[in-house]
Design a protein that fits this description.
seven-stranded antiparallel beta sheet; T-fold; globular; binds adenosine-5'-diphosphate; binds magnesium ion; 313 residues; 36% helix; alpha+beta
C-alpha cells in the first residue's frame, strides 16, 4: 500500500493520504469537506481555497446580501435595462432555465417575490394574505428572464421581479469545489452543503463513501439510513425542517409557482447523478410536481435517478 501511494504521488494524483475534515458555515448551511491529501498543511490550504470560493459564490448568489450580484440584477427588473452578469451567474441561470423549461416551470429562479412572502409568513407564523400571494405570483415566471448570449447580458422584463437561487446555489457551490479539488489533484473527497452532497473516488482504504441520509421505516416514519457512494452527487430535498403549520396544513419553503403556495404534501426526495447543481435544482422541481409529471421530468435527465418517500409523521 505504501509503495502504491508513493507510485501514485508521482502521477501526480493524491489518491492516498491523510483524512482531513473541515467545516465552513455559509449559504444558510454548514459546508463540510472531507479530503485525503498528502499532508495536513496541503489539505488545509486546499480547504481554504474551497471556502474562499464558496464565499465568493455567496456574494454573487445570496439574496440576503443587499449588494449581491443577484440583488443588483433584481433591482433592474422592469426598467428595460440589460445587465452584464458574471460567468458564474450566467452559468447558474443557464442551468436554472433548462430545468424550468423541462419541468414546465416547477423550478423557477424568479420565485423571489413568493419566497420573500413565505419567509415572512414563516417568521410571523402567519398565512400570507391571498391578495399578496396573487400579486407576488404575477411576478414569477422564468420566461420573464431574458438572456443575450453574445454579450452575456440579462434582462428581467417585469417590474417587481426577484431572483432567488436558494434552490440551486448550494449544489452549484459543491460542483465548483470539485473543480478546485480536481485541479489540486485530490480525487478522494466529499463536499456536503446540507442536503446537497457530492463525493469523488472512494477513500483510499474503502470501497465507497458512507453517507447518512433519510429513509422510511415500515410504519412510514422518517428514519436515518446509510448510503454507499462514489463519484456521485446526491441531493435530498423535502419538508423535514422548514415549513409553516397553519390550520392543520403544513406549507413547505418549496413553493409551487403555479399556485403561489408552499407545497403541502409530506414527502422528501433524493436525487442522484453526476452533478450537484442539477441534482439540487431537480430535487426542488420534483417536490413541486405530481407523480406522473415527475416521471416525465426524470426521463429528460437520464443520468439522474430519483427516490421519493411519502412520509406520514
Ligand atoms: P431543500 O434543502 O428543502 O431541498 P433547497 O434549499 O434546496 O430546499 O431549496 C429550497 C429553496 O429554493 C427555497 O428556500 C427557495 O429559496 C427556493 N425555492 C422554493 N421554491 C422554488 C421553486 N419552485 N423553484 C426554484 N426555487 C425555489
Ligand atoms: Mg435542494
Amino acid at each position: 500500500m505504501r509503495f502504491f501511494c508513493w507510485f501514485l504521488s508521482l502521477i501526480p494524483v493524491l489518491a492516498c493520504g491523510q483524512r482531513q475534515e473541515f467545516f465552513h458555515p455559509q449559504m444558510g448551511t454548514l459546508f463540510q469537506v472531507i479530503l485525503y491529501a498528502e499532508d495536513t498543511v496541503q489539505g488545509k490550504a486546499i480547504a481554504q481555497e474551497l471556502f474562499d470560493r464558496i464565499d465568493t459564490l455567496n456574494a454573487i448568489f445570496s439574496d440576503y446580501l443587499e449588494n449581491s450580484e443577484i440583488n443588483r440584477i433584481s433591482a433592474s427588473a422592469g426598467t428595460g435595462q440589460k445587465i452584464k452578469v458574471s460567468t458564474e451567474m450566467w452559468r447558474l441561470i443557464a442551468v436554472s432555465q433548462r430545468v424550468s423549461r423541462k419541468s414546465d416551470g416547477a423550478f423557477d429562479l424568479s420565485i423571489g417575490p413568493l419566497s420573500k412572502l413565505w419567509r415572512r409568513a414563516f417568521r410571523q407564523t402567519q398565512f400570507p394574505a391571498l391578495a399578496e400571494i396573487k400579486t407576488a405570483k404575477e411576478k414569477v415566471n422564468y420566461r420573464f428572464i431574458q438572456r443575450y448570449p453574445l454579450t452575456k447580458k440579462i434582462r428581467l422584463t417585469k417590474a417587481g421581479m426577484r431572483l432567488d437561487a436558494g434552490g440551486i446555489a448550494k449544489g452549484f457551490a459543491v460542483d465548483e469545489c470539485f473543480k478546485i479539488l480536481r485541479k489540486a489533484g485530490v480525487s478522494s473527497a466529499l463536499v456536503a452543503a446540507g442536503g446537497d452532497i457530492r463525493v469523488g473516488a472512494a477513500p483510499p482504504d474503502k470501497a465507497a463513501w458512507t453517507i447518512a441520509s433519510k429513509g422510511l421505516n415500515e410504519k412510514g416514519e422518517t428514519v436515518d439510513v446509510e448510503l454507499s457512494l462514489k463519484r456521485e452527487a446526491v441531493s435530498t430535498s423535502g419538508d423535514t425542517y422548514r415549513f409553516l403549520d397553519w390550520e392543520g396544513q403544513r406549507y413547505s419553503h418549496i413553493i409551487d409557482p403555479r399556485t403561489g403556495l408552499g407545497i403541502q404534501h409530506r414527502q422528501f426526495s433524493r436525487l442522484a447523478g453526476p452533478r450537484s447543481t442539477l441534482a439540487d435544482a431537480l430535487a426542488t422541481a420534483i417536490n413541486v410536481l405530481k407523480a406522473e409529471d415527475r416521471k416525465i421530468l426524470m426521463k429528460k435527465f437520464s443520468r439522474y435517478t430519483l427516490e421519493v418517500y411519502e412520509s406520514k409523521d
